[in-house]
Amino acid sequence: MTEADVNPKAYCLADTHLTEKLLDLVQQSCNYKQLEKGADEAIKTLNRGISEFIVMAAEAKPLEIILHLLLLCEDRNVSYVYVCSKQALGWACGVSRPVIACSVTIKEGSQLKQQIQSIQQSIERLLV
After folding, report:
1. Which residue, 6, 115, 118, 123, shows the most beta carbons closer than 10 Å to its own?
2. Does this model's pTM top 0.85?
3. From CA 79, how far away is CA 46, in angstroms rounded?
4. How far does CA 86 lie from the centroid of its chain?
5. What share of the chain has pLDDT > 70, as a percent?
């Protein structure tokens, strides 16, 4: 999938380098039990205030099914980013099915804290 195929509503799309870092961190978060998979679970983490950031798939059809997540993220001051492939996001989440959204969650004393902060800074640079 190329960037030309991506829905223009998918603002804040990660480039190839950032996508690799994001998917790697999502996979590690899954191993450390710091990941919630699916749009509904991502909403729950936002409402509970335990989300570090949200990763969404830009190829979700129709994209409107996850656009409400943006409003929640902005309301809760949580970073969000799009990756091109929902299949790649699913694999990073440790499942064989496509995933359209996931949430990396807060965990006290997490070994991933440094990587999470680095990714959050990269996402913030995309939003500016």
Report:
1. 123
2. yes
3. 11
4. 11
5. 93
